[in-house]
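input
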Amino acid sequence: MSFAPRFSRLASAMLLCSTASAFAAPVSLQMYYPIAVGGKVSHTVEALVADFEKVHPEIEIKPVYTGDYATTVTKALTAFRGGNAPQLAVIGDIEAYSLIDAGAIAAASDLANDAGGKKWIEGFYPAFLRHIQDKVWGIPFQRSTVVMYWNKEAFSKAGLDGETPPASWQQVVDFGKKLVVKDAQGAVSQWGIEIPSTPNGYWNFQGLAATNGSRLDNGKGTAVTFNTPANIETLQWLTDLGQKENVSPKGAIAWGTTPQDFISGKTAMMVTTTGNLTTVRENAKFPFGVAMLPQKTQRGSPTGGGNLYVFSSASAEQKKAAMEFIRWVSSPEQAARWSIATGYVATSPAAWDTQVMQDYVKQVPQALVAREQLKYSQPELSTYNSVQIQEALNHAIEAAVTGAQTPAQALESAQKQADRLLKPYQ
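output
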């Protein structure tokens, strides 16, 4: 009996198996990503994904750009409830309670629970890690704080020291009055300062409130403290900048247009995210500085931005692949690269120790301000039903700065709405 046909069939089968293995489909991951600030963020995201796929050809990542943070979490939860969730996403750090409440995410500390994983998580700045139920649910990635930018050239023209930004609320007003430029007809061509109040005014407001010794929530996601005397005083000051002191435009100031107003010289100072640093650096035709927020009683700022989350509905294979990407993209080298490209804060001390980051801060010392401000930072307002509660506070801030309600009335209304929304969790 000849064994040749049998051997031939066996060889062919082995060859087919070998070929199938060599060309096995990669693990495919969909990643929701919020595009909410200026700059070429999407290009940087795509470059990072492409570079990861070169070293991990067994994993394929498809970014899906989903709008701002609030839109992204809404889309992600809708997709999860519809059985069509992404496997990973960059979602606001503040959404952790809502994501956990929905059962939508797996804790990062559960997915990286060996000694190496624990050490990796502990390597991030503590200010960027939110512990809920003794777990870390999201890995810091697109993180920021609120800072002040100032136009040194405008300061010099106004007779101010271009190297010295305002350090207090009172100095903001005093400097602002010198910085306002009007034409012969009284039309303003340059404002003293712009602090965005819409559509997400709550974040800048929290930064100002922090410098007045205040917090907006209880740190457990179950209660807020909007209508305290310190917060009313803060909102009154913000309102007065436009309505009384005339150093800022009257009414609501848009988040999206403020950086361009600063770059084009329409305002000499602005308060916004560190995530706009690269956009300002690449487009401003004048020397500028970045400073910690001016204080009333103390230094302070909220952290902000998004974390990388893995969805609970992903398969075990997809969760493993997602964590592979998360560990790669949050490594010191990639975190430094991301920070330089965007202006977001590098999320670990090790990232700041890389040679590329050390070289960068020699050229752009403004980048160090956000890192130093982390010492005084508090977690961003975060609760259950976070989107609705943020909106209640956003509407209150807008009502106050437009004169529709007094700061006390507006914050009292927001407090009552939040109390009602959070009652089931108390």
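quick obs: The chain has a mean pLDDT of 93.
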